[in-house]
Amino acid sequence: MPHTLMHKGCSLAYTLRGDGPPVLLMQGVGCQGDAWLPQVDDLAADYRCLTFDNRGMGQSQPVGAPLSIEQMAEDARALIDAQGWGSVHVVGHSMGGLVALYLALAARQRVASLALLCTLARGHDVAPLSWRMFWLGLGTVLGTRQMRRRAFLNLILPPGALAQEDPEALAARLADLFGHDLADSPPITSKQLAALRAGNALPRLGELAGVPTLVISAEHDPIAPPRLGRMLADGIPGARYVEMAGASHAAPITCPTEVNALLREHLTGANACIRRAGLG
After folding, report:
1. pLDDT (mean) for 235-256
2. Whole-number pLDDT of residue 181
């Protein structure tokens, strides 16, 4: 059932599902909270899952305060506070991963663990320029609507994936998760990208030592390539790094079984650490 929380000029739209230890899931650029449905449908059997539309995206309107990674992390903290949760497991994809890092750095005691998917620690590194990235990016803004949808799919799926799919049918299914036609970019996208590129948690990653952390990268991700995931994991003492073979940026949607298994393993281990600490 949808809920709203007014915070800093924006009515943040969020959804709660399931029972158990709380898990906050944060999305990336141009995605609504429902893009986490492949994870929530699984995790909600054992966890209390909170997903939300980022400020200015989907039902979280108006933008209100100036957009920044710091502001989005503050929004996430406000949602945690509204539930009365002392601490929460935090899962972030793409831009949501950088927001998760800022949240953990600002309020470490509120973050029980981190799961960082297809993301990076320094926003300036996103989508490193290559001929492939140039043509894929160009294709998402030029041409017919059908061409733009296909280009977007090629941007987030591994090479050759569309040879086994009906691109239009797949684009329609993903539109329900993303919250918009893949031929279009939501108006907030440019501001989200600017906020992402301005964010940089890299110099402070060492401060997260002791926070159970899982970093997942995808082999064919042109937006947050594996080398950026490895850099992120290397910066957090004790972090676990996993690279998903054959996957790309949309791995949580296209490979939910594998991603959900990794998340469950991570959450189970983090909860065990919390119990041990409580006993100590």
Report:
1. 98
2. 96
Q: Is the pLDDT of residue 142 over 90?
A: no
At residue 209, the 3 state secondary structure works out as coil
Amino acid at 274: I
Give the Cα separation of 273 and 212 in Å (integer). 8
Burial of 86 (0-12, 13-18, 19+ CB in 10 A): exposed
Residue 144 pLDDT exceeds 50? yes
Q: Domain residue spans in the chain?
A: 2-127+188-279
| SS3 assignment for 2-57 | EEEEEECCEEEEEEEECCCCEEEEECCCCCCHHHHHHHHHHHCCCCEEEEECCCCC
The CATH architecture to which 2-127+188-279 belongs is: 3-Layer(aba) Sandwich (3.40)
Cα→Cα distances 187→19, 130, 275, Å: 35, 26, 44
The reported pTM is: 0.95
Question: Residue 232 to residues 120, 121, 194: CA-CA distances in angstroms?
Answer: 6, 6, 20
CA distance 107 to 112: 11
DSSP string for 64-130: -SPP-HHHHHHHHHHHHHHHT-S-EEEEEETHHHHHHHHHHHH-GGGEEEEEEES--SBGGGSS---
d(CA 174, CA 153): 9
Whole-number Cα distances in Å, 54 to 23, 104, 105, 147, 182: 16, 17, 19, 27, 18
pLDDT at residue 1, as a whole number? 62
Give the three-state DSSP class for 160: coil
**What is d(CA 67, CA 64) in angstroms, rounded to the nearest whole number?**
8
